[in-house]
Amino acid sequence: MKISKGFIAQLVVAILISITFIGLGNWQLNRAHDVKIAKQFIPDSPRISLEKIATSDSNLAPDAINRLVSVSGKYREIFFAPKQPLTSGNKKSLVNLEVRLLELPGNRGILVVRGIESLEDQEIIGEVKVNGRLYPRQTSDATRAINGELSRIDPALIVSRSKLELFDGFIIATSEATKFGQEILTSRISAPQLKSKVPGNYWQHISYVFVWWLMALLVLLAPFYNSMKERESGGKVRT
Amino acid sequence: MSQLNPRQAALNGAMTRFRIMAIYAGVMSLLLWFISIPTHYLIFKDAYQYLSWISLLHGFTYPIYVLAAFHYCIKARKSLTSTILLILAGTLPIASFVAERRAVKEFKALN
């Protein structure tokens, strides 16, 4: 059987497209894996330093979400996040939260939810050690925000006004202490483990894996399409 | 039902499978594009947990449509371009309905 140059070119193109589709399938497989990790229950101990599981120049890794973290720095700015949903037992309510920008050594920063907004700003000077749980950034607005308010707790909202390199996500503080070990008290909110609300998401991504890999297989068959048609019809075919 | 000629008889099984899957894929695409995706991204995120089955089912059954369309195209001796378009029709709302109607028209015209 003589193989034409045209057929070889078709085959090379098909292989390249097929590799791309396999890559897209692998990408969906990785996303399915990430979703699985996000849904897993992660033991709350040991507490880990924020810098060990996150960096200021990248998105929050799925396995960093829900981790209990500790971080030290100085509070720089105060914001308020109005109408944030708060669940206490079976009760759901909307509260205004106090959010502060914590500056870390190395010109970096992270948003810290301290607790429920109080009438007077609590002045916190000097280094603070914060313990809390790490959460991914919020993606939907809770309300319309005015100056000094955050419509959602998302570092992207303050990136233009801060010179700090911001960490993705935010921390809900469960305790704060000064560098002398003195605890700072405020109206804290609970920091439960975040659970995915979308059941079946893992299988959704797996289904896309099958689709992409099937497409890759079909693309590989494309150069042989005409000969398959010939075999089907038992002779020369129209194209 | 009228008598099928030999070419129609040879294509009948693949054609029936393709028609069923084209209509199914069309319905699923409509649900996905006009109910599931708007609910997830525009309207009310929490409601998506009750509708996630749409994208899940569509994802797992679309390969069946692809295989049915591919088999039909081989049997019907379609060009490669037509085959690709027919496969992609399963991803867009309405498009697979149009593809199904065209296939029926071509099937009836076979002699």
Q: Would you give an account of this structure?
A:
The complex is a heterodimer of chains A (239) and B (111). Chain A folds into two domains: 5-37 and 199-233; 42-184, OB fold (Dihydrolipoamide Acetyltransferase, E2P) (Beta Barrel), CATH 2.40.50. Chain A has 239 residues and is of the alpha+beta class. Chain A contains four helices and seven strands, in the order αβαββββββαα. Chain A starts with a helix and ends in a 6-residue tail after the last helix. In chain A, α1 (5-39) packs antiparallel against α3 (201-221). Chain A is 29% helix and 29% strand. In chain A, strands 2-3-4-6-5 form a five-stranded mixed barrel. Chain B is mainly α and 111 residues long. Chain B is 78% helix and 0% strand. Chain B has four helices and no strands. Chain B has helices spanning 6-43, 52-75, 80-89, 95-109. The longest helix of chain B is centred in the N-terminal third of the chain and has 38 residues, at 6-43. Chain B is elongated and about 55 Å long. The model of chain B has no long low-confidence stretch (mean pLDDT 86). The A-B interface holds A 140, 197-201, 203-204, 207-208, 210-211, 214-215, 218, 222, 225-226, 228-229, 232-233, 237-239 and B 45-46, 48-49, 52-53, 55-56, 58-60, 62-63, 66-67, 70, 74-75, 77, 79-80, 83, 87.
